Amino acid sequence: MLYERIIRPLLFILSPERAHNFTLGCLSFxxxxxxxRQMTRLFFSKKAxxxxxxxxxxxxxxxxxxxxxxxKNGEHYNSLSDLGFAFVEIGSLxxxxxxxxxxxxxxxxxxxxxxxxxxxxxxxxxxxxxxHIREDRPRCILVGNISKxxxxxxxxxxxADYIKAFSLIYDFVDMVVVNVSCPNVEGLxxxxxxxxxxxxxxxxxxxxxxxxxxxxxxxxISPDLENEQVDAIIEYCRRNGxxxxxxxxxxxxxxxxxxxxxxxxxxxxxxLSGAPLYERSLSLVKYIHEKTGGSLPVIGCGGIMTPAQAxxxxxxxxxxxxxxxxxxxxxxxxxxxxxxxxxxRQKEEAAALKGSPRRPERRIKRDPSPTVEETPSTDAGxxxxxxxxxxxxxxxxxxxxxxQN
Length: 405
Ligand SMILES: Cc1cc2nc3c(=O)[nH]c(=O)nc-3n(C[C@H](O)[C@H](O)[C@H](O)COP(=O)(O)O)c2cc1C
Prior knowledge:
By secondary structure, this protein is an alpha/beta fold. 40% of the residues lie in helices and 16% in strands. It has helices at 2-11, 16-32, 36-44, 77-81, 126-135, 155-169, 194-209, 227-240, 261-267, 278-292, 307-315, 325-330, 334-354, 359-365; strands at residues 53-55, 58-60, 64-71, 87-93, 106-109, 114-117, 141-146, 175-179, 217-221, 244-247, 271-274, 298-301, 318-323. The protein is globular, with a radius of gyration of 22 Å. The two termini are 19 Å apart. Residues 67-69, 72, 91-92, 106, 115, 117, 119, 121, 145, 179, 182, 220, 249-250, 273-274, 277, 301-304, 323-326 line the site of flavin mononucleotide.
């Protein structure tokens, strides 16, 4: 409330990029003052064992992450994780620093709860990020998002550049996302054609084989792909050991917007994010999940603006979700609101389970098989349906037990 009524209107007086830098500066400042970090965590983070989930062999304390592009340089991941994010995707990072497109390159469309960006992957380069990671040990799961540098144009240059980026970042992050879907870098989205994708993904995956530790490698795709293109990418990923997909990036489309056409014309091309993207991202996540029977994990991203949407995305097959624009519009308590909603639903489901008429029968059985809490759950923390005859008599723990806030 405080954010939406007071802080956001003040921030929105500044240009979007200025507001972005100012906010990140404030977060760093908060972290630098005595008790600043503890206070931030106390206000904004939420912990509970029932929020944990294991995906890609990694234990995530909750399913909510920060999408690529906000911590472009990998300098604020710890401050951002204090706001409750289980994982922070840094980047997109390129092998060399690059300025991106000329300003203005970021616009707000408040009528649509959206942003349009034409940033062009401005960042200080991977080496700068590595130096920072060495100095400030990550306290969250760190995901390195890599992209080709804008000046890599030929197939040979692009291939060499992605391999270099991958080799540089690999040891410093927990997971790597290969971004091939930014609409603001000329030719980048055409890298999603599998013939092109394989030209640099094959050597990246070979490179991973010779590493001591096998870390997950994901590909970030565009919501503008046709189903046949998604099918081809899924097929490639499954055959070649890509661990999952981030679905997805911003869209080039401008459908069903309330923003006046003259404002849209002024903004011009660029990637649209936020509320108008949600239905498309959701259907992309559903499509991938159904197509793969869940065997290729998806991080759902795009247009999540409410806790209900985050839960719906998880229920529809996303193993994890990421937010960006929702965080800009709803502020630092956005993650906590989502986590609270998940916990509330878990509580309700546990209560419903308790009241289930089948419970007395199960009491007599005393079966040693997993408890309700131990039974793996695949969606947004939903407890299993009360049909398994093996659920033992022990009363279900409240999901918030152990909540340290
Ligand atoms: C200003 C801005 C910059 C972004 N930069 C990147 C980037 O560098 N790399 C990337 O993979 N995605 C980038 N994205 C896309 C987001 O990671 C995300 O995929 C997209 O915004 C959809 O999610 P949302 O609707 O929750 O914002 C950027 C988005 C915005 C708004």
